[in-house]
Amino acid sequence: VVVSRRVPVDWARVMNEPSVFLVLGVPFSPQVLQRAGFVRSKSVVIYQRDVTKCTDAALVDSKAIFAQRLVEALLHDAGRKNVPVIMHIHLEVNTELMTETSEPKRAQGLLEMLESKRGEEEEE
What is the pTM for the complete model shown? Predict the structure, then answer.
């Protein structure tokens, strides 16, 4: 399910897919998210096509981070605490603002394991 204020530019490429749906509305609206059925989802992906226009570059991901917090709070209230919320961000430094649920349990520790293995290979 895609939630967007307007029809996405590339919608024609996917609109005939049997499992892809479009819900028009404000993505920050709990009512629109309810209409999209996000509470029944197995995961939620937050993709931001545009960056937030601001004078401080660190704020370019502010809308996506707000959306993540909103979705997680709504999922928590619905008793769905283990739904991964995956977010597209523009600045790596903003990963510090992401919450733990943004990282699915299967992936937790994966980076550390890969870095450890890389370190062992470099020592050889």
Answer: 0.68
Could you give the number of structural domains in the chain?
A: 1
- Residue 8 forms part of a structural domain: no
Minimal CA–CA distance to 103: which of 33, 91, 31, 112?
Answer: 112
| Torsion sign over Cα 65, 89, 97, 46 | positive
CA–CA separation, 105 vs 109, rounded Å?
9
Q: Which of 42, 45, 46 minimizes the C-alpha distance to 80?
A: 42
Instruction: List per-block mean pLDDT (blocks of 10 residues) for the chain, which spans 124 residues.
Output: 91 92 92 92 83 72 86 90 84 74 51 64 61
Containing domain of residue 78, as a range?
Answer: 37-123
Tokens standing for residue 83: 């739904």
Within a 13 Å sphere around the CA of 32, how many CA atoms are in the beta-carbon half?
Answer: 15
